[in-house]
Design brief:
Protein name: Transcriptional regulator
Bound molecules: zinc ion
Strand content: 15-25%
Order of helices and strands: HHHEEHHEEEEHHHHEEHHEEE
Pfam family, one: HxlR
InterPro entries: HTH_HxlR, WH-like_DNA-bd_sf, WH_DNA-bd_sf
Distance between the termini: 25 Å
Keywords: DNA-binding, Transcription, Transcription regulation
Strand order of the largest sheet: 4-3-11
Organism: Thalassotalea profundi
Number of helices: 11
Length: about 290
């Protein structure tokens, strides 16, 4: 929510609190984490009295494709009346744009079915860390959120681990349990939530009707570009000395896969300094 506010132009502490409706200690804690992670800098904007604002570093600005990928997902799957909508203008072509996830080489829209992958030298296993913190299940007022539905999914560590398994073809309960090391009650709970959200469906395993497997719906498949943008971000900012963990190929063109969020009108990459926006509240469309 803080990142989203930043994209909407918020820079100061009080504005973050107002925009996110989060409690001050929470905002303060998260801003501190973003500074510690090298994503934000605290900059003096007024000397007397001394006042600060927060500025995104290059590391943070590199989340822009992910923010656009999230917008793209919300636009496809989470249209409801009263929801906040953003209209983006691509300054370089002067058109209203709906950026979409495309392969940098061939400019085709990215879908997981067109991607082949093998593990790279830097592949590792993520430890399941259990924290005593309880998940917040307070769906906030949707008027303030552009990303409200997707954030419930990708903001949840367990849901992301589950999706990661399923995107790599691991889709039976016991197997997911094994690779994610999630406690089995949490796993069942998250799987049913993902089913309720329309991300997963259950199917009988072919030739073995006693067992079921979890499959992504179209809505679930469309999360792929968001995960991909995170993967690119990680490869750049948290690289393993051994190399990339996953080597992806775009089957349509045969090139190594690089995601680019490109303009729906001119097919050039959409970057933060080439984008302006305005906010509207949608009334119809579903
Ligand atoms: Zn391609
Ligand atoms: Zn354009």
């Amino acid at each position: 929510m803080i990142l989203e506010s930043y994209w909407l132009g918020v820079r100061r502490f009080d504005e973050f609190c107002r925009q996110t409706k989060l409690l001050k200690p929470v905002v303060s804690d998260r801003l501190k984490k973003l500074i510690d992670n090298g994503c934000f800098e605290k900059v003096v904007y007024q000397e007397k009295p001394k006042r600060f604002e927060y500025r995104g570093t290059e590391k943070f600005i590199d989340f822009f494709p992910m923010a656009l990928a999230m917008l793209y997902w919300e636009r496809q799957w989470s249209q409801k009346p009263g929801k906040l909508q953003i209209i983006l203008t691509h300054k370089s072509c002067g058109q209203q744009t709906e950026p979409f996830p495309a392969c940098k080489s061939c400019k085709e829209t990215i879908t997981p079915l067109d991607v082949s992958w093998k593990t790279g030298p830097g592949v590792g296993v993520m430890e399941a860390k259990y924290s005593p913190r309880r998940r917040q299940n307070n769906k906030t007022d949707s008027q303030t959120n552009l990303h409200d539905e997707i954030i419930q999914i990708i903001g949840d560590r367990w849901a992301m681990l589950i999706l990661r398994s399923i995107f790599t073809g691991i889709n039976q309960f016991q197997e997911i349990l094994k690779v994610t090391a999630i406690a089995s009650n949490i796993l069942s709970n998250r799987l049913s939530e993902l089913i309720d959200e329309g991300i997963l469906v259950t199917k009988e395993v072919p030739n073995d009707s006693r067992r079921i497997e979890y499959k992504l719906t179209k809505k679930g498949m469309s999360i792929y570009p968001i995960i991909l943008s995170l993967l690119h971000w990680g490869d750049k900012w948290l690289p393993s000395p051994k190399g990339a963990p996953l080597l992806l190929t775009h089957k349509l063109c045969g090139n190594p896969l690089q995601l680019q969020m490109i303009c729906s009108e001119c097919e050039k990459e959409v970057t933060p300094d080439e984008t302006s926006y305005s906010i509207v509240i949608s009334h119809s469309r579903k």
